Amino acid sequence: MMSWLPLLPWIFLAGTALALILAITVRRHYGTVFTLALIGLGASFAALFPAASAAPARVSVLLLVDRFALFFFGLILAAGIAVVLSSGRYVRRSTERGEEYYVLVVLALLGAGILVASTHFVSFFLGLELLSVSLYALIAYVRERICGVEAGVKYLILAGVSSAFLLFGMALVYARVGSLAFERIAYLLAPSSLTPASPATDLIVLAGLGLMLVGVGFKLGVVPFHMWTPDVYQGAPAPVTALTATVSKGAVMALLVRFGAVLQLTPDDLLWQILGLIAALSMIAGNLLALHQVNLKRLLAYSSIAHLGYVLVAFLAAGEAAVQAVAFYLVAYMLTTLAAFGVVSALSEEGEEDRDVEEIEEYRGLGRKRPYLSAVLTLALLSLAGIPLTAGFIGKFLVFGASIGSAMWALAVLVALNSAIGIYYYLRVVVALYLRGEESGARGGLASSGGAGGPPGSMAPESIVPGAAATAVPVTPDPTARLRRIFVPAGIALALLALLLVLLGVAPQVVLRMIVAPG
């Protein structure tokens, strides 16, 4: 009889979702649900340590709880805790019914946790759909925001189409290979098992893998499946954008690493070459499209496309160095993204209710008014740019080293060139943070002096009519100026994220020692 100890983190997380539903049923109280969600996530994270003592353990043919799965599940839970902390005041202010929000966040984390331990297409699809369906609702959770509802509908339609591609591809592979288990499929496609009618050269198998690649490519948001990314990032509430950008992509990438480890792709394989092309296009397109963005959330969206391209380069490299590069880069990327969107969430708590503080112009001069938040955002942007003494620099160094070690010269050159391009648009935001604020226009940038009796730093709303009398124009205080005190749990989360960004940039071995290959 199998021990339940390896599954303890997943059991606690599922129990947290049930506890939240019961709490909401008995009595609606936002503070209670928020606290229960944090306690449940903390208990699930603590359960990783006893589960590790019993790993590796196979749970039927569907899941494999090994140290690789536990590492990524711990990363997902940590990201979930950061998202919940940054959501506390934000969600309560944005909607009257915020309790179900935390149920959806926990279910999304549970779906991601199933993905990182999956060794079978059935568990793969179930985990992916649990994650995706939760994200549909979270993206459009604030129903009063038209852009959020629009983003939710876009994600729903495109994700549904990608799931159809994924299922059809699985069906084709199963029809020719006769198995849905990763290891069995890899064995049947291995050169040693080939027959004159080899499945590895069968057009149906190749078509099935290609269709599955479409589904996975959409979830990762890489070129040419990236069109949804900027619209969803911009339309979703800032904490949900952080969840989508980190947990969703990190879980799918972890599963891809596990599947690639058993498939053992080589540069001679067509699938390897297609993934190499996708990685190259993602790096180039993501960075070039980010160059002229004036919206911070859209800039980070296009940036994420490029970063997933870097991760794919590490994935295509061979050996243990590739696994280390992928895992560490995902750690660095998730920390920086959570920190960046955490700052956006904190600034948006006291802004206009129908939108986030997301235009780069609105951050002009923030360094003088909000030095703590500006410092965290600056550190996150420097890490994304790959500046030394940050986790992002170590991540890019490992990716570059893995690509050189596998003689992937073209991709290594592209990593270096695109990293240089990325420095420009990240530093553009950093420079804006510490420039003196100036009077801005329709989108409500920071103002250096009050108008019509408004306080210094006030901003004019979007409804300004050209030619109207100055005394007739209502002036709304700048949201960054109104934010007198950061929500304490969110402030603690941002401080820890900033500390980890520096710590891993100076002592990366703290994480590198925990990274192991799947299996």
Describe the overall structure:
Helix content is 69%, strand content 1%. With 519 residues, the chain is mainly alpha-helical. The protein has two domains: 1-266; 267-448 and 455-461 and 468-519, no CATH class. A two-stranded antiparallel sheet has the order 1-2. A hairpin with a 3-residue loop joins strand 1 and strand 2 (63-65). Helix 11 (238-263) packs parallel to helix 13 (296-316) and helix 16 (371-385) runs parallel beside helix 20 (488-506). The longest helix has 32 residues, at 146-177. It is globular, with a radius of gyration of 23 Å. The model is unreliable at 193-200 and 439-483 (pLDDT under 50).
> Helical content, roughly?
55-70%
Residues in β-strands, percent = under 5%
Distance between the termini: 21 Å
Major β-sheet profile: 2 strands, antiparallel
Report low-confidence residues grouped into runs of 5 or more.
193-200, 439-483
